[in-house]
């Protein structure tokens, strides 16, 4: 089966084109087990996401942070990027008062955690200030207690969904050491000044200047003092948080060049680019359901290791009950590992749950049944659903835009043979998820 690897855009590619973020974060919220130990953050970090903009530059009636991709609002993807980082304790989303109910519905629908909604102000700085003050209040709007006041506050735009943990770590650590830190990028175009008559006055030497981007990080004391000290003019017309820290706290920010993936959804064409990137990246993640079996868990761990070389990420969970039910509304691809003969009924239950969640309207879902056969015989009769049953199930699911596949893995005591078989299963599942080839629907494949 031919594989179609996705080419990542490097830093020296066309800067006017949105850069691909690699594997888009879709792991379990608050879980970072794949991250190296040196990224450990031993101080509290919180995030403020100003999301009160009207999106005038997109030319759309709906503010861009609330525009939907695949049935899910853009801001939900941004929240998820922060939520999955274990060392971030609270995410404050600041929205216009008229959008409070919409934001609350998004949080509930996609089962976001760590999130608080705070009413915004009339300008960007007023909204950010409200978010910062909420982090230091010690109480939420209902009077309940919140997490401890953060040491570092990261401020980020709600419409930059492709922020990565590596860079957040750099910002958080630099902010703790210096008091403030911010992302920068090389200027794309030369900056010029014009006369009042509309003629060229002068131009700036582009090599000496950088574009200020998000995220930006501050110690809580610095950003709080800056907002307590700034003027009404700053609140009304200012946009740069790093400048406030320098002007009112004497804190000279550490500037860190960020990756090209930090681009901001600003214009209508950016919405289409973001949707395309999200679709492509989601095809490289999946949720593995093990059923709690020790053998299935072992296989899931082996698959996680194998797909890493294929630029895929897998999250393994025992079932879709309790907190794990959120995968039904956030994930697009599911791998069900089966040991027993009851696998088909379990897949049917998964399909029923996905249909109830109304997931496959705008984008197809993929469900792959991986059956681990412990028999020495190649026959699977009595141990796994017959191919005809899988075909019937897949044909019915296809009408609901859900693609179902079956993969048989023969267990082997030979280590080399077993590793080759697991790698083959990883290649098959990766290809099926990426390609969604209708010609293979219902086929039973043997690794």
Automatic annotation (TrEMBL):
**Keyword annotations from UniProtKB, A to Z:** Cytoplasm, Nucleotidyltransferase, Transferase
Q: Where is this protein localized, as stated in its record?
A: Cytoplasm, Cytosol
Question: In this record, what's one Pfam family?
Answer: IspD
- Pathway per the UniProt entry: Protein modification; protein glycosylation
The biological process GO terms on file are: isoprenoid biosynthetic process; protein O-linked glycosylation via mannose
What broad class of enzyme is this?
transferase
This protein's source sits in the domain of life called Eukaryota
Q: Which GO terms describe its molecular function?
A: D-ribitol-5-phosphate cytidylyltransferase activity
Residue span(s) of domain D-ribitol-5-phosphate cytidylyltransferase C-terminal: 285-425
Any idea of its EC number?
A: 2.7.7.40
Q: For the region Disordered, what residue ranges are annotated?
A: 1-41
Listed under catalytic activity are:
D-ribose 5-phosphate + CTP + H(+) = CDP-D-ribose + diphosphate; D-ribulose 5-phosphate + CTP + H(+) = CDP-D-ribulose + diphosphate; D-ribitol 5-phosphate + CTP + H(+) = CDP-L-ribitol + diphosphate
Entry GO terms, CC: cytosol
**Compositionally biased residues, Basic and acidic residues:** 9-19, 30-41
Provide the family line.
Answer: Belongs to the IspD/TarI cytidylyltransferase family. IspD subfamily.
Name the job this protein performs. Answer: Cytidylyltransferase required for protein O-linked mannosylation. Catalyzes the formation of CDP-ribitol nucleotide sugar from D-ribitol 5-phosphate. CDP-ribitol is a substrate of FKTN during the biosynthesis of the phosphorylated O-mannosyl trisaccharide (N-acetylgalactosamine-beta-3-N-acetylglucosamine-beta-4-(phosphate-6-)mannose), a carbohydrate structure present in alpha-dystroglycan (DAG1), which is required for binding laminin G-like domain-containing extracellular proteins with high affinity.
Its assembly, as annotated, is:
Homodimer.
Name this protein carries in UniProt: D-ribitol-5-phosphate cytidylyltransferase
């Amino acid at each position: 089966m031919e594989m179609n690897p996705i080419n990542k855009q490097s830093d020296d590619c066309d800067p006017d084109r949105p850069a691909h973020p690699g594997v888009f974060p879709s792991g379990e919220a608050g879980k970072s087990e794949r991250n190296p130990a040196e990224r450990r953050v031993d101080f509290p970090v919180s995030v403020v996401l100003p999301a009160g903009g009207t999106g005038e530059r997109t030319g759309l009636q709906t503010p861009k942070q609330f525009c939907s991709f695949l049935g899910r609002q853009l801001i939900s993807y941004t929240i998820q990027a922060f939520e999955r980082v274990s060392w971030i304790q609270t995410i404050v989303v600041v929205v216009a008062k008229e959008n409070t109910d919409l934001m609350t519905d998004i949080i509930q629908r996609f089962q976001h955690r760590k999130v608080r909604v705070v009413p915004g102000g009339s300008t960007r700085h007023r909204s950010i200030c409200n978010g910062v003050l909420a982090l230091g209040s010690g109480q939420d709007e209902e009077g309940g207690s919140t997490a401890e006041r953060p040491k570092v506050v990261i401020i980020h735009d709600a419409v930059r969904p492709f922020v990565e943990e590596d860079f957040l770590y750099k910002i958080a650590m630099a902010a703790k050491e210096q008091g403030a830190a911010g992302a920068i990028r090389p200027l794309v175009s030369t900056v010029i000044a014009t006369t009042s008559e509309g003629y060229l006055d002068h131009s700036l030497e582009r090599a000496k200047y950088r574009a200020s981007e998000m995220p930006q990080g501050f110690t809580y004391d610095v950003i709080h003092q800056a907002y307590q000290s700034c003027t009404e003019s700053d609140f009304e017309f200012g946009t740069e948080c790093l400048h406030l820290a320098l002007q009112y706290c004497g804190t000279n920010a550490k500037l860190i060049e960020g990756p090209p993936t930090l681009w901001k959804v600003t214009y209508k064409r950016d919405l289409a680019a973001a949707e395309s990137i999200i679709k492509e990246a989601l095809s490289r993640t999946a949720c593995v359901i093990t059923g709690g079996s020790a053998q299935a868990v072992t296989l899931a761990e082996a698959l996680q290791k194998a797909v890493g070389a294929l630029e895929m990420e897998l999250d393994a969970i025992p079932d879709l009950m309790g907190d794990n039910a959120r995968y039904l509304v956030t994930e697009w691809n599911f791998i069900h590992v089966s040991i027993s003969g009851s696998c088909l009924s379990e897949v049917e239950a998964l399909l029923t749950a996905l249909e109830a969640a109304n997931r496959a309207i705008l984008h197809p879902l993929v469900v792959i049944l991986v059956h681990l056969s412990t028999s020495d015989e190649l026959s699977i009769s009595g141990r796994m659903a017959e191919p005809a049953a899988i075909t019937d199930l897949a044909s019915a699911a296809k009408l609901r835009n859900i693609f179902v596949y079956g993969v048989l893995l023969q267990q082997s005591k030979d280590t080399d043979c077993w590793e080759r078989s697991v790698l083959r299963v990883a290649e098959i599942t990766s290809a099926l998820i990426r390609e969604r080839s209708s010609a293979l629907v219902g086929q039973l494949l043997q690794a």
